[in-house]
Specification:
By secondary structure, this protein is α+β, with helices and mostly antiparallel strands. Helix content is about 25%, strand content about 20%. The radius of gyration is 31 Å and the shape is globular. The relative contact order is 0.16.
Length: about 1000
């Protein structure tokens, strides 16, 4: 197995920040990371999920009673399905759309009602709006572009329009005198300025491509009860509606918007204090709101969810230095680059309205020895990141005629009468300042602003540029609020973020109908051209599916079943369904002065106890090696390079071990002193890609803890059995439907991308996993490294072919059906799956299947896009239908009310959320050749029942935990594989902050070739678990 690729251009993450920083991830709740991911723990086994103590509490409608699901919407859904010809006769409808039509609504499970975090949108009759695209030249972006749009819509001919402040304006009626190609010139004025500054740039604005759309037409389409042609402009309509609904927050001075859909109040008023949380390290988190207009059967809806983001604290810069880490100047400069600050030592100006306009600067970096190299009197900087006493600038005899906001920054080489790099205007007679001489920033402020005390040891900042610097001491820089960061949080900051963001459903519901509606301006109907928003969240029809019995072996090696309770089950006194033989194995003890330290002799008896536990669980672990003796590695705190070298050395020695000196181990239990990402990455990289040895990592203090030790042993043993080829658990054949026939291969596919903080030349990595039999217990894999930020898998044909080869080797035949769960694809990319990836899959099949088989439609392929990077949440309506964490019970499924009748998609909350608000999985069928053509088996009434129950039941087969997980295991395993690939490429995905190595030279990105290989000994195993 190999993953080769040449990196093209740089990357971001899937739809706005995948795996780096705080991202929420695919966890069980909105709390960051995987709520059901084991990490070093191997999942949460044992006791039955949920947390006791706090009483169950559910969201209450402001009216006091939960409204029933909209009967009018349900009638439209039912009539449409009847009109479309009923179950199994929707072929005609399929011709009118890109993707498979819904074969019916699910019928299985207990019928309930749940709140959804959506508001109904009321559309006035015959509402039409006109959109104009806006071209701005010269090209600009960011805050300056935003300001250009502000100036545009202030013009009389554009009054009353709505804008996204980036590329378009929208008016209620066509604008008088504004035709396609209309141009206008705008001279730039800063915020609050009455007149443009001298030499202010002029922007040419061109208004093009006017498009008038009737919103009522879309509303009528969604309410139709008969199949008809697809609404081809739906995406444009939704885009326009999102601009209309987002304009209030975009235009509000005390609301900052990140992206187009997330909005955060930056008010420091007492009434908003509960939405601000200090994270430490100069950072804070704000609680805001995500908003998106969605098309649903019967009406338009607006989806609103609580959102959290990380910002710099709006504090004086010198007070932030300690938290930001001023000792490492390279890292500090990265953190301060392009940060906007208000200047405190110079008075603000007042405009004609009496509004005080603060002087604002943008930080270029820290003081550098190369600053101002082209100037006649270049600054004298003692060292990179020097303090105010060690940064000197030239102060000329004559200052400029008018003071400058922050600096006597020279405008060009040889310009008379201006200083070089100074923090303020020229000296002037009698000021006590020298003239035609160098002066330090420290002395300048001591004389000019004696009331300001400077710390001579902390760095000054350059608010000019490299050619023409302008220096300010940190004490006079006030960081503006609402500035996001693009880097990983520290573990401590992450924990603070989780604490702040982890909230029960009723808390989020109350925030949405309270602060959310205020921040988003839902009551301002007039500003939205009459589009009104409902006063409370809608309720939708839902069903609660029963969990399947989980099959294991008892102590007599006979099959036995365990029934999940609250989404989890206990594996006590039972064995794995199919045990494995792990062969020769040993352990390594990693020692450190940090954390609780254990030596080999300390842990030896515990390892023997663990060996006995493995044996009792059905795993043959009899070959625990005694020679050579288990090694110890002493870690050096903070010395990642030295630690990596030591880890590589010990695994190189193990890989080369031959009799009579000893036996090469198949497995190594790595006992760590604490959780450490760098150590973990080093172990996995060398063991997986060089030594070909399976490793399982655990923390010594947890392994040695006697309390509930069997449960911890159980969690670790889950990984041992999977890696060795065993099957941890399975289900009764009827619960797996078509899979149980042994003719269907299930595939998981995912792609991971560079995240904030990754190097510019970091690649993307695609991973594929596939089942090998009807038990769904083993999922070997393949992967490719590909061009950064590219979601479609470019090497899928070879990856897919390898999975067919593995299935054929195991079963002596090829699968008749292939069910693919594709993770991480946004709605706008669904068609690309069929255009780019499906042809590669069919090409791979043509290489393995006889020509006659492919001509007659074999294998049959179904592709389901799945994911949790959406903002739909469901809240229970009564305490009786809530679990112990106040979430909906595991097994809650929703396929109507917030979906479109024409599309085949559904939401499943298969897991119990331990804390926070549960995030359901969303599944959307983009291709179906399997389910629609089969007659449903009772009690199923249609293909929707078959797919929904199969997906829910498979969530109980994630082998690394004794509980149902939040995402279908094929996709979950593919994600774990991608996460492991990030370990191998951590130098690119998660470079050390202290590294001064640049990934670009002279603005040109390097293009390394990545060659990640898995040795034959691990090739067909679940090494990535």
């Amino acid at each position: 197995m190999s993953g080769r690729g040449v990196r093209g251009r740089g990357g971001g993450d899937r739809g706005g920040g995948d795996r780096g920083g705080f991202r929420g991830g695919r966890g069980g709740g909105d709390r960051g990371g995987f709520g059901d991911r084991g990490g070093f723990r191997g999942g949460r086994g044992g006791a039955g999920g949920g947390r006791g103590g706090a009483p169950v509490q559910v969201f209450r409608d402001p009216s006091g009673t939960a409204p029933m699901p909209d009967q009018q919407v349900m009638n439209i859904e039912n009539k449409y399905m009847t009109s479309a010809g009923g179950i199994g006769a929707l072929g005609a409808a399929s011709l009118t759309q890109q993707f498979p039509a819904r074969p019916g609504y699910g019928t299985q499970g207990k019928k309930i009602a749940v709140f959804a975090n959506y508001f109904k949108v009321m559309v006035p009759p015959q509402l039409a709006v006109t959109r104009y695209n806006v071209e701005v030249s010269p090209e600009t972006r960011g805050r300056k572009l935003y300001r250009v749009f502000e100036l545009l819509i202030e013009l009389p001919e554009f009054r009353g329009v709505i804008s996204d402040m980036k590329s378009m304006i929208i008016s209620r009626n066509p604008l008088t005198g504004i035709s396609d190609g209309h141009t206008v010139q705008i001279q730039y004025r800063g915020d609050g300025q009455d007149e443009p500054l001298e030499n202010a740039p002029t922007y040419n604005i061109r208004i093009v491509a006017p498009l008038t759309v009737n919103i009522s037409d879309l509303n009528d389409y969604l309410s139709a009860i008969h199949p008809g042609p697809a609404f081809v402009q739906k995406a444009e309509f939704i885009q326009i509606l999102n601009v209309i609904f987002g304009h209030h927050a975009q235009a509000h001075s005390e609301i900052v918007s990140t992206g187009q859909n997330r909005h955060f109040s930056i008010s420091r008023a007492e009434s908003n204090r509960h939405n601000v949380h200090i994270l430490g390290g100069g950072l804070e988190s704000l609680r805001g709101f995500y908003q998106s207009v969605r098309a649903a059967t019967g009406s338009l809806l607006v989806n609103v969810n609580v959102s959290h983001n990380v910002f710099l604290q709006p504090e004086r810069l010198d007070r932030l230095y300690g938290g930001l880490g001023s000792a490492n100047k390279v890292t500090l400069q990265k953190k301060l680059k392009l940060v906007r600050v208000d200047v405190l030592h110079l008075p603000g100006k007042k405009n004609k309205s009496g509004q005080e306009i603060r002087r604002t600067k943008t930080i270029f970096g820290l003081a550098h020895q190369q600053d101002g190299s082209s100037e006649d009197h270049r600054p004298q900087v003692a060292s990179f990141g020097a303090g105010p006493r060690d940064v000197k600038f030239w102060l000329s005899a004559q200052g400029p005629p008018t003071p400058k906001p922050a600096a006597g920054k020279s405008k060009g080489k040889g310009k008379k009468g201006s200083g070089s790099g100074g923090p303020s205007a020229g000296a002037g007679a009698g000021s006590g300042l020298p003239s035609n001489a160098y002066i330090s920033v420290y002395d300048y402020f001591r004389i000019k602003y004696p009331q300001i005390s400077l710390n001579e040891r902390i760095p000054v900042v350059n608010v000019g540029n490299r050619e023409h610097p302008s220096y300010l001491p940190a004490e006079v820089c006030l960081v503006q609020p609402g500035q996001t960061i693009k880097r990983r949080l520290s573990p401590e900051q992450t924990q603070q973020m989780i604490t702040f963001a982890c909230r029960k459903p009723f808390q989020n519901g109350n925030s949405i109908i309270g602060d959310g509606k205020a921040v988003l301006g839902h009551d301002n109907t007039e500003a939205r051209f009459g589009l009104a928003v409902g006063s409370s969240l809608i309720t939708v029809a839902a069903r609660q599916l029963n969990p399947p019995p989980i099959k294991y072996k008892d102590n007599r090696a006979k099959e036995t079943s365990v029934m999940p309770r609250g989404g989890s089950w206990n594996m006590a006194n039972i064995r794995f369904h199919t045990g494995s033989n792990i062969g020769p194995w040993t352990f390594i003890v990693f020692r450190s002065s940090r954390g609780r330290d254990f030596g080999v002799q300390d842990v030896r008896q515990t390892v023997v106890n663990f060996q006995r536990f493995l044996q009792n669980s059905g795993i043959n672990a009899s070959q625990l090696l005694t020679a050579p003796p288990p090694p110890e590695i002493y870690l050096q705190d903070g010395q990642e390079g030295a630690n990596d070298a030591a880890i590589r050395s010990i695994f190189r020695a193990m890989h080369g071990t031959q009799p009579p000196k000893g036996t090469r181990p198949n497995f190594v239990l790595c006992i760590l002193p604490f959780n450490d990402v760098a150590i973990y990455n080093s172990i996995k990289t060398v063991a997986d890609t060089r030594a070909g040895i399976n490793t399982v990592c655990c923390v010594g203090s947890k392994l040695m803890k006697e309390q509930r030790q069997d449960q911890y042993f159980g969690n670790v043993s889950l990984k041992f059995n999977l890696k060795a080829g065993g099957i941890n658990q399975t289900l009764d054949a009827p619960k797996l439907g078509i899979i149980s026939e042994g003719k269907t291969m299930v595939v998981g596919l995912d792609v991971t991308h560079p995240s904030p903080g990754s190097k510019d030349n970091a690649p993307s990595a695609a991973g594929i996993v596939a089942s090998v039999d009807k038990f769904l217990g083993q999922w070997p894999c393949d992967f490719r490294i590909q061009e950064g930020r590219k979601e479609m898998v470019s090497g899928l044909e070879g990856m897919f072919l390898s999975r067919l080869v593995t299935w054929e080797r195991k079963n002596k035949t090829l699968p008749e059906n292939i069910l693919i769960y594709r993770d991480g694809v946004s709605e706008g990319q669904y068609q690309q799956l069929l255009d780019v990836e499906l042809p590669q899959i069919r090409n791979a099949c043509k290489q393995k299947y006889p020509p006659q088989a492919t001509k007659t439609g074999f294998p049959k392929i179904t592709i389901v896009v799945c994911g949790k990077r959406h903002h739909t949440r469901f809240y229970p309506t009564t305490e009786a239908e809530a679990d112990r964490s106040s979430n909906c019970n595991p097994g809650t499924i929703v396929d109507r009310g917030v979906t479109e009748v024409r599309h085949w998609d559904f939401f499943v909350q298969s897991h119990a959320c331990l804390q926070g608000t549960a995030r359901p999985g969303h599944y959307y069928v983009v291709l179906d050749e399997i389910f629609r053509g089969r007659n449903p088996k009772p009690p199923h009434q249609n293909a929707a029942d078959a797919l929904e129950e199969l997906t829910h039941n498979m969530c109980h087969l994630f082998g690394r935990a004794t509980k149902a997980v939040s995402l279908c295991p094929p996709a979950y395993y593919a994600d774990l594989l991608c996460t492991r690939l990030r370990c191998y490429l951590s130098d690119y995905f998660d470079p050390n902050d202290s590294s001064a190595t640049q990934s670009t030279i002279s603005g040109v990105s390097s293009q390394p070739t990545f060659d990640v290989r898995i040795p034959d000994s691990l090739r067909d195993t679940m090494f990535y678990i």
